[in-house]
Amino acid sequence: MKEFKDKVLCVTGAASGIGRAVALEGALRGMKVVINDIDAEGLTETEAMCKEYGVPVVSLAADISSAENVEALLNVCLDNFGKVNIMVANAGVTAPGPVWELPIQDINWISKCNFVSHTYAMHYFLKQMIKQGDECCYMNTASGAGLGISFSSCMYHATKTADVVQTECTYLALKSRGITNISMHVLCPAYIKTTIHLSDNHRPDWAAINDDPYYQSEEFIAGKIRAARGVSTGIPIDSVGLTVFTAFEEDQFYILTHPEALVVQQQRMKNVFELSHPGT
């Protein structure tokens, strides 16, 4: 996609961070913008920032882990602008720890927000894009964590890996059916100065922190400290929107903010080929 003016952009997780950066880049390029987040206050701020570029902006504050809310978001695009040309499924959360320590509600929360919501978006938005038949882009925000592994935040790694694979498989599914109007993309960023380490501030009611001992555990507290340190050393957010839109322009499938992430992936694949243990 080379021309963006007056086309319709939809972004989830747009109240801050990468989602906000992508929405602002779209507004800068003259796009009509639809944004979503569970954080209504942050979403209002993003809406105001986008409107400074003189483009129409509509927002939907909702928990995007619900299929009904994803469908509602598509309807917001259609009711206001009649179509959608770029969909960026960006919403994501994280919580530290191995799966045997995570509360079931956190397993569900991370899975639904990071992976299932993106799959819902693919179901509804790709169907609409196929129907439109015009030039469209679809992007899932995965993570460098989807290209590698570590001992911490196991569910984050698992769901982000699933994002990558789902996007790859869907690309092949479109290609095998001769559907050529949609370009597929997956963003795999490493540490960027966002607020993902503050995911707990915007938990839905069904995943609210409760009296489970995990939330007072050393694992939970240490993991939060590691996440905050990692984010604080990340690259500035400023360039991310441009990076994403350049990938749309060049039809680049894998989008990396830190090319060194490929080294981690190479080591992982080396372990697979050699049938050795992970991390060796």
- List SSEs in N-to-C order: EHEHEHEHEHEHHEH
Within CATH, the superfamily carries the name NAD(P)-binding Rossmann-like Domain
- What ranges have pLDDT less than 50 throughout 5 or more consecutive residues? none
Query: How much strand content do the residues show?
Result: 5-15%
Could you give the topology of this structure?
Blueprint: E1 8-11, H1 17-28, E2 32-37, H2 40-51, E3 57-61, H3 67-81, E4 86-89, H4 104-132, E5 136-141, H5 154-176, E6 182-188, H6 218-232, H7 240-250, E7 254-256, H8 261-274
Parallel strand pairs: 1-2, 1-4, 2-3, 4-5, 5-6, 6-7
Helix pairs in contact: 1-2, 1-7, 3-4, 4-5
Characterization of this structure:
The protein is of the alpha/beta class and 280 residues long. It has a single domain, classed as 3-Layer(aba) Sandwich (Rossmann fold). Helices cover 47% and strands 12% of the residues. It is built from eight helices and seven strands, in the order βαβαβαβαβαβααβα. A seven-stranded parallel β-sheet has the order 3-2-1-4-5-6-7, with helices on both faces. Helix 2 (40-51) links the parallel strand 2 and strand 3 (57-61). Helix 3 runs parallel beside helix 4. It is globular and about 50 Å long. The model has no long low-confidence stretch (mean pLDDT 95).
A few lines on this structure:
By secondary structure, the protein is of the alpha/beta class. The protein is built from eight helices and seven strands; from the N terminus they run βαβαβαβαβαβααβα. 47% of the residues lie in helices and 12% in strands.
